[in-house]
């Protein structure tokens, strides 16, 4: 869209029918568009977002697979770190090619850096352009991304996820599951139940290899459904409790955030006095768009019409 955007801005600048404010804003935007720093940051955001988009989309799903979420977090960290340590040369080469293609002036990377073309600031002239773009922009941006991932998915969270994933491994590690319960769920199990859980896990481990339904599961949610379908939930009630506790981990969905975002659309100034029931029903239809799209509008109108007589035809 770079060429198209440039053409639109040029058209606004050259069109005398526009007032001087519009033409001035377009001229300023056109100048920023053709600056090396804009192109550099544009390509950097493309690279960063491209490497984090898969994880972002996965974490926004309504149903979350903890094992896949954990693996995606680890893979994203490794990918960003590799790009930070080894991706500069190929990245700057790509930016240089783009600038040459669109006739954008590039600075001398070995020259002292100045933040403006007219008057250098006090902190300028102490580093080169290469240092500014490589350290202050490229490396700092990637370090910030890695820092955010490490803070949101710290060692304790990753350990909890790793221990929970052993429930869907080919062979359940009984010691790991018992360690998970003792360390993270001490208030949900008594000492006697923890001892009994070990025996249930050993029995479940053997029975799972012989049961075709249980042996084919690969996610925690599938394991929970299989325990219900095979009626093993009552027999292995402690195992079922562990599974359900793991499914409530905060690596789940973004449905709640979508609900608050949708509330700003429905409960505006003109409709601020709507009842809670009406607001809740409207939000459900808005949030669950995939389900509401399957509804037949004519059938809903007919049902509403049959509730009582109407003066006007619906």
From TrEMBL:
Domain HAT C-terminal dimerisation, chain residue ranges per copy: 231-290
Alphabetized InterPro entries for the sequence: AtLOH3-like, HATC_C_dom
GO MF, one annotated term: protein dimerization activity
Parts of the chain that traverse the membrane: none
Database matches in PANTHER family: GENERAL TRANSCRIPTION FACTOR 2-RELATED ZINC FINGER PROTEIN, ZINC FINGER, MYM DOMAIN CONTAINING 1
Protein name: HAT C-terminal dimerisation domain-containing protein
Organism: Tagetes erecta
Upper lineage: Eukaryota, Viridiplantae, Streptophyta, Embryophyta, Tracheophyta
